[in-house]
Design goal:
Length: about 160
């Protein structure tokens, strides 16, 4: 079992003991998403589950989905549901690494461009792949893409 799975399972057991229903519900959702990905990755074989990097991608996706839902609920005037989504986000984020600030993201983009030898916009995939390999769960790649593009276009 990976480190992140162990942390999630430990938190799940503690939430059961403490009778924290909302937290328990979110932790069960995390566990279910990881198990779904395990099943998809196995494809019928009996290999082990996904690694920590994949678990980070799952958690990042879950966080993004909840941010989008919270925004939609606020626009629809359903503040109670938006608050519930935010509570789930806070539980999920406990398992994510610290998010990089803007300066750190710019520095990471600069380093990725340098280390991959990227010179044009055609190299954007290579740079993004490098960043995803090193910074999964630490930055929003939807916001990083335009930074990489600007860096490659400006030379």
């Amino acid at each position: 079992m990976t480190e992140l799975r162990t942390r999630v399972n430990t938190a799940l057991k503690q939430a059961m003991k403490d009778k924290e229903a909302d937290r328990l519900s979110t932790l069960r959702l995390i566990n279910a998403a990881i198990k779904d990905r395990d099943i998809a990755a196995r494809g019928g074989s009996d290999e082990g589950g996904v690694d920590d990097a994949e678990v980070l991608r799952i958690l990042g996706k879950m966080t993004k989905q909840r941010h989008d839902s919270a925004r939609a609920y606020e626009e629809g005037g359903r503040l109670d549901l938006a608050e519930r989504e935010r509570a789930e986000i806070s539980v999920i984020e406990e398992f994510l690494p610290r998010q990089l600030n803007d300066d750190e993201v710019r520095s990471a983009v600069h380093d990725a461009v340098e280390s991959t030898g990227a010179t044009s916009i055609r190299d954007m995939g290579k740079v993004m792949g490098h960043l995803k390999g090193r910074y999964t769960g630490q930055m929003d790649f939807g916001q990083v893409g335009p930074l990489v593009k600007d860096r490659l276009c400006s030379g």
